[in-house]
Amino acid sequence: MSRGAASGPVVRPVTIEEDQRPATPPGIVRVEVAGLSKSYESDRGPVTALEGIDLQIHDSEFLTVLGPSGCGKSTLLKCIAGLEPVSAGRILIDGKAVTRPPADLGIVFQRDLLLDWRTNLQNVLISVEFLGLKPRDFEERARQLLDLFGLAGYEDRYPWELSGGMRQRVAICRALVDNPGFLLMDEPFGALDAMTRDELNLELQRIWLRDKKTALFITHSVPEAVFLSDRIIVMDRNPGRIAAEFVVDLPRPRTLADRETQPFIRYSAEIRATITGLGIIRNG
Ligand SMILES: Nc1ncnc2c1ncn2[C@@H]1O[C@H](COP(=O)(O)OP(=O)(O)OP(=O)(O)O)[C@@H](O)[C@H]1O
After folding, report:
1. Nearest atom within ligand 1 for CA of residue 38
2. Are 189 and 168 in contact (CB under 8 A)?
3. Residue 165 CB less than 6 A away from ligand 1
4. In this predicted structure, what is the pLDDT of residue 196?
């Protein structure tokens, strides 16, 4: 189930039976990150946020990056999204070097970044406007998405009238409205209460199972990572690097009750043990 990254520490031996399968799922490689390093300039000199990252994301794969604060998760996402230049290495999406944000990309951040003076429907359509497309052509899809995320009737209301969870649903609809091939999500549910987070995990799984978009998801939560992912990358910090990788071979659709089952608990336990074993988080 798990394996150490080539240059990282070796993780504990595999304990779950299904690892006759290849460690990396088969399929077309959509995103290829090779030898990626990223440093920022700061008042106190350069900060190495990422070093020697090698990573592939396959077509229709749901990949989650899990790691402690400051290990470079957001930096990795921003580099893949073309929002930050890399210091070394390369990133290819569908074989093309990323030099600026690709059009075929939807992004959701922890803060929803909705514009309070625009209606929810108009907020969803912003990404279409940015792409220079006609909002009217996407209005039906925007309405369908809002409906799918339980926001029918709120199209002409404003973000300030919504709860945090509802706002984040609008932000997800905005990322999906032009039907991008890739979905990048940077801790989208990090600011939400536990129940709303559960609901949104289910809704995200539902839409991912329907559309099978290639997804990169960032979280600090081990159960959330296991619930949503095909594969989980665990990162370590100083400098940010890949420390371990897990293939999550649990049937879908997954239910919230599945989190109480033995296979789910074993995945969570093994990931936590790896995180503790790597010294990323101390156990007590
Ligand atoms: N614009 C910047 N200028 C200087 N240093 C930065 C900048 N952005 C990030 N860093 C540094 O790079 C490192 C990685 O930051 P990053 O935000 O990618 O981590 P993270 O894993 O996403 O953290 P968190 O989980 O807290 O959001 C940190 O040491 C951070 O201080």
Report:
1. 12
2. yes
3. no
4. 87
